[in-house]
Amino acid sequence: MTVLPKSKAAPRPVWLDTDIIFNRVGRDVDDGVALMMLLQSPAVRIVGISLNIDVDNGAAMTQRFLDYYGRYPIPVYKGADDPREPISDDNEAVQALAEALLHGSLTVLALGVATNIAALLEHYPQAAANIESVIFCAGRTQGTVFTARGSDVGLPDANFDNNPQAMLKVIASKVPVVLAGFQAADGIYLYHSDINRIRARGRPGDSWVYRRLLYWWLVWKLRLRVDGFIPFDVCTIGAFLWPEYFEWYPSVPVAVSVRENDAKDFKDLESKPYLEVSENFDSPYRVAFAHRVRPEYKTVLLNTLLGTDS
Fold this sequence. Notes:
The chain has 310 residues and is an alpha/beta fold. 37% of the residues lie in helices and 21% in strands. Helix 1 (30-40) runs parallel beside helix 11 (233-241) and helix 3 crosses helix 4.
């Protein structure tokens, strides 16, 4: 994967596909933190944002971030509301993404289920050919169990688990796929002292962001007994903006394995599919896979969130 210099080059155009929640206690905040990063970064220009899952709430939360941290107008579109649809009907988000791609190539940063991207492939294959790559927050190396440090609670690979069929449609397409999720993000935790720095920064939205992150920090402390939380989606963003901070399998076979469910606290099933990579797989499909992040990336993350990274 090419490492781009942090120069004064023109911002790189991206499309963000997200299942942002942010305001619901007990529901993850990662998409909001990732959006905040993108809005602060001069290295990207967000061409559009498409939503999936609880899209009315997602639209309200996205607009609030744009009001607080946006530097230029960004259109927001509602996509598939039901994560279980393997291929959703055509909708405004899919149409808008197709239109944007017909005007030029884009990288798609996919922080939620793959429903909207799979629908694009189904309804607008010509436009989908202009996707430079889709970077998903998903996947693991063969046999890896997702647990936070010091916790024995198995965590899900939610973006895959909530719609395996849609993800597999994208992987089986000709679109280049990058996976950068839990396994890389496991090296980065946000602690109370970190989120307090956001509140202390004093921008109009910082107290609101701090309160939401504080609730999520408390959820991890009470439910997982972990002092800190992993903001998974920030590594998906980092794999695009700062790939030099990650260790990569640049082209590795990817397949689905079915075995006992190791995250029963989150979904009460005896077994489930796993999206995995391994050189041992006899698979026709390959992806780029970020499997580790360097500790220094946390400084980059915090400087970006604080708006101090020029």
